[in-house]
Each structure stands twice: as structure tokens, then as C-alpha cells.
Amino acid sequence: MAHGDITHIDIPVSDMARATAFYSGLFGWNIAEMPGFEGYPMWQAPNNISGGGLAPRDDGFEQPRSYVEVDSIDDTIVAAEAAGGSVARAKAPITETSAWAVIVDPDGNHIGLFEGVVGG
Questions:
Q1: Angstrom distance (rounded) from CA 117 to CA 96
Q2: Which of 19, 88, 114, 120 shows the smallest number of beta carbons within 10 Å?
Q3: H or E segment at 32?
Q4: Cα–Cα distance between 85 and 1 in angstroms, integer?
Q5: pTM to 2 decimal places
Q6: What sequence ranges are listed for the domain VOC (predicted)?
Q7: For residues 58 and 63, what is the distance between their CA atoms, to the nearest angstrom?
């Protein structure tokens, strides 16, 4: 993936088993938990390119969220705020080599940011 690519889409769900059955049956997605990410099953589309996760729904996460790969989350946050955006979730590590954050655009849309390499 490169800077600006959509890397991941999280779907908020209230019942993991029901959501897994729904999406795997409807779209043929392969859905499985990965070591180190228990309780957060990852989905992979049949094209082996598109993917994301099924994440627990909560008050701050009620709609699907796309994640965009960036070279620097810190720089992207500065640029987003300068352009009228804000931060919904501060930068946090995923692994030793990757991190995520969530910004809000001027229209109130939440966009995830991804930096680094998962697992590597």
C-alpha cells in the first residue's frame, strides 16, 4: 500500500458471531481472528486485497470507518487541523511498527489514519 491508499475498513458490530455469519455468507468474506488481535476478527474479501475488521460497536464508533495509509500520522493531524478538521482519537500503537488515529473532516466524517507496517 502507498500513501493515500485505503488500507482497511472497520465495521462496528454488536454481535460478532452474527456479523461473521452475515458477512461471510453474504459476500464470501474470510473472517478470522489473528494472533494478538483476539476479539477483533479480520475480514478479507475474495479479491485478497480488500479487508478490514469487525470491531465492537460503541458510542464513538457507530458507522463503518475507512483507514487511509499516511507517511506520518503526526504530520497528517497537523495538516487536517490546519484545514479545519479535528482529532477524534489520538495516535495509538497497533504493533511495534504501526499506529492508528482518527480524524474528523469539516463535515463531521470520521476517517482513520494508518502508519507503518503491521507485524513487521
A1: 9
A2: 120
A3: strand 30-32
A4: 24
A5: 0.86
A6: 5-116
A7: 10
